[in-house]
Amino acid sequence: MTKGLITTTVGSFPKPPYLQKARNQFSAGKLSREELDELERQATREVIALQEEIGIDILVDGEMARGDMVVFFAEQLEGMEAGGLVRSYGNRYYHKPVVKGRVRWTAPMTVDMWRYAQSLTDKPVKGVLTGPYTMVEWSFVEGYDDFRSAVLEMARAVNYEALELERAGAPFIQIDEPALSTRLEDIDLAIEAMGIATEGLNAQTATHICYGDFVSAYPRFLDMPVKQFDLEMANSSHDLVELLKTKGFPEDKEIAWGVVDVHSHEIETVDQVVAEIKRGLEVLPPERLYIDPDCGLKTRTWDESADKLRVIAQAVAQVKSELGIE
Amino acid sequence: MFATVVGSYPKVPNRPRPARLRNAINKLDRGAITQAELDTVADEVTIEALEEQAAAGLDLVTDGQIRWEDEQTYFARELAGISINGLIRWFDTNMYYRQPVVEGAVSWQKPVTVRDYSFAAEHSAKPVKPVLTGPYTLARLSVDKHYHDNESLALALAEALNQEAKALEEAGATLIQFNEPAILKQKDDFASFAAICRRLVDGLTAETSLYLYFGDAEGIYPQLLELPFDLIGLDFVMGAANEALLRSAPFTKKLGLGIIDARNTRLESPEQIAERIRSLSDGVDPENVHVSPSAGLEFLPREVAQEKLRLLAEGVRKAEGVLV
């Protein structure tokens, strides 16, 4: 029997309504840091329990302490701060971070929460960080004359955090670069930065990126120094199968195949997901094919997230038993 | 010389000032206020935007596009033949817009921005220019399920925008601006773009301007100067190559200098701005130079935008020799 079709998720889970409310109260000064911490931990317990109940293999802490994936780090790194309100769309605003001066890592930012999440389960919990390119691209840059220097120094800060996660025991570390989709001509810089961010790591590394980038910059993208590409597929797996069939895929790399669309309320059927998994198996052996949703779950409701993950678990179980995979 | 803007102005200030428009829209969504109450708040915020631009020292202002959800939706959804779909990223920014879907023949039905223009003109201490997203950019950023041809769609949109511009003229607008960032991403379309522009300004008597940003005009300059606009605005922040282009052929129209970075909070000094103006506007009559940020200001926090405009105006006065 071969092993494989390991299930995981990209990183974020929806925040339960009580935590959303608490975050608002905290920013309005009506709730203490300690009270918010306790609610973040409560939500983390629920996220871990949900993943265990569904039977996911590699868990995440769900990022209950993080609002925006860049702002969370910006508030803690030296040289960065959360800036003023900028509209992202419609009536949604966020505090767009500012790189004010030289970026320095000063203390672990994600390790306590990772450790807490890992203490709740015997399954491995993945550490998830925002990549250096995305950190800078999605911020204002005042402290550097050129973008490249800012990204490379940011990469060093991300590396310190990744090493701390590893030291705490994280077996998997994922460093996400969704911002690359806006400027794929920066691929060389992003690869160089990822090299710094992953330097000295023994943990298994992954990056979550948009599927379109992976395809447009193929095979250059394979030089990204990580073991696993976690792809936001957006229902395009047909093209990916063709690409990998014609151009090949290195035997030392893995793909996490996004099999459900997190940007849709609709819950996929088990049959649809089984078909997706089988498409992945056309080009990858099961031990190098991970199965997950195609992006972070934070924009879905708790119930939609649970339903999508259950469909994934059922579909994986069905394919495994059909093909005799352990 | 004119200190001016390219279009949008940030809608909400930061604490401790209240985010009135944001709160009002939330209340409308919850059914706690009426549309008329929201419109009143939008009017008041428009007045704030006009006052802040004037206080910064601008000579020519906009209504800040305070009511615009994004650069496409506000106008497009009022046209026959178009519905509004899901969110999609706006160029390479971290902002999103709702994508127009063209499902039938596009036509103009009624004025969309005229009331906004009239309101702004009435409440502004400075002259107001209406700013519209141009037909080519609207077409490029839409899903076309009807024409199946970008030029046909853009021509239909040009016709609709032409009617809107005529309505703005009737309301008293003497300068009308069109923003067309998308052409810089598809320069091969320039011949088609020129035909679309001719349709766009056909029969207009007001002055017109065309603003191109998020890139440079390499490959379409100096042909650009043959387009039927009185003023052409270029982005010298994301379009660094524009500087050399200006030196390659004389700039024969009024010149829009987008020289302060609308997408970064780092502040430019009035001395730097004045120096940039002097070096770039060489050969253009100063009264034909409009100095502005590189693009609309909604990428910036409100306070930073206002400070940037204050420094911009100061730089313009220095370049004119009014300030030392």
Short description:
Chain A has 326 residues and is α/β, with parallel strands linked by helices.
Give structural notes.
By secondary structure, chain A is an alpha/beta fold. Chain A has one domain (52-68, 110-323): TIM Barrel. Chain A contains 11 helices and 9 strands. Chain A has helices at residues 17-27, 33-54, 71-74, 111-119, 132-137, 147-168, 187-197, 211-216, 237-247, 270-283, 302-323; strands spanning 78-89, 92-104, 127-130, 140-141, 172-176, 204-210, 228-232, 254-260, 289-293. In chain A, the strands form 2 sheets. In chain A, strands 3-5-6-7-8-9 form a 6-stranded parallel β-sheet. A 3-stranded mixed β-sheet of chain A has the order 1-2-4. In chain A, helix 9 packs parallel to helix 10 (270-283) and helix 10 packs across helix 11 (302-323). Chain A starts with 16 loop residues before the first helix and ends with a helix. The model of chain A has no long low-confidence stretch (mean pLDDT 94). Chain B is of the alpha/beta class and 324 residues long. Chain B has a single domain (2-320), classed as TIM Barrel (Alpha-Beta Barrel). Helix content of chain B is 38%, strand content 18%. In chain B, the strands form 2 sheets. A 7-stranded parallel β-sheet of chain B has the order 1-10-9-8-7-6-4. A 3-stranded mixed β-sheet of chain B has the order 2-3-5. The longest helix of chain B has 22 residues, at 35-56. Chain B starts with a strand and ends with a helix. The model of chain B has no long low-confidence stretch (mean pLDDT 96). The A-B interface holds A 83-91, 93, 96, 98, 138, 140-142, 181-183 and B 10-14, 19, 22, 25-26, 29, 69-70, 87, 89, 92-98, 264-266, 298-304.
